[in-house]
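Recap for those who missed Tuesday's class. We walked through two folding examples back to back. For each one, the amino acid string is listed first and its predicted structure tokens come directly after. Nothing is annotated here on purpose, so try labeling regions yourself before you check the end of the notes.
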Amino acid sequence: MTQDIEQRVEALEARLNIIELEATYARSFDEHDGERWSSLFTADGIYQSRPVGDEAPVTFVQGTTALNEYCSGVPFEGIHMLHLPQLAIDGDRATARIHLDFHGSWRNSADAPRLTMHGYYDVAYRRVDGHWRIAHRVTTAFSREFRTVLGYPTDSVLPSD
């Protein structure tokens, strides 16, 4: 019975650690904290997007240095809204599917398009030195919508009577 409880606690801890990893993933990417974001991956970790049709992947980044540079240099601001991961854990390896919504806009441009993306991540994790890390993450988009939102011009005034 004791071993069963220990195994169950270990499984719960693994799930909670991966959920925390995913929360840190979203926040550090949204804050362009490339150093922290890249530290969530294994040393040879991969972030990529799934190609659409016969197109090449939009993004393929591998390794800590490249991941750090990618996150630090993305030309847009945004926020990830992640759903809870559907996890399968097997010892020091795990996989997940995580549905997401992303809302963003390009920096330094008042009339830049706004992006809304709905999709999911397929993620492979490895436990390295007692810590869960992302080994491979693939983004699949169900939909991407680009809109230009103009708003009120900054120099607009009401007509005087």
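Example two. Treat it independently of the first, because the proteins are unrelated.
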Amino acid sequence: MPQPPSAINRRFITFEGADGCGKTTQLTKTAAFLRARGCSVVTTREPGDSTIGGEIRRLLLSPEVTPTPACELLLFLADRAQHVSERILPALQQGCWVLCDRYSDSTAVYQLAARKLERDRELTPLLTFAEQGLTPALTLWLDLPIATALHRIDGRTGSDHEGRLDHESARFHQAVHHGFAARQQQYPERIKRIDATGSEEAVQERIQAVLTPLLARD
């Protein structure tokens, strides 16, 4: 499988965090921040932002479908393999900044850690395989207290409601939080913790403070 040039990921930024942390809102604000500085920006998300991803997303998030943990993992990886080839890599090759709502860190946390599939060490290389050599230059982990995140989830309605994953137990969401914290300690140079408490503007200021040095090097 061909690997992209090592420098191509320098404009690839992922937004991660537990459900309800505000990452989608902050991704939109960050895109506006970059565009105001003359950057070409592509925003995308996982799962679902490819020709076959929409159907995968429907299966993964439908409250009427409960895949086994192994099936869930493989569906996410299938979505990512298509997403990288069809959306992310072409945009990076054209010189765009790509801001992605969830990527491999979510899979490592939700499926491997919280679903307890990490006990099977043979599964970890599958994440790398689906990435096709494309690792983010920067991952912004929006860290929000569990109680606040669950309150936000309870208040979701309509298209803002994620479906099946929103209805996981508080214990599962706590495991997700611990998983992201452990992931950040494992990759501190790439994954930056962003305090997601306070106003949307305050959180965005924290993100911009992290992004500014990256922009200066571009």
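Answers for example two:
The longest strand covers residues 138-143.
Confidence is low (pLDDT under 50) at residues 1-5.
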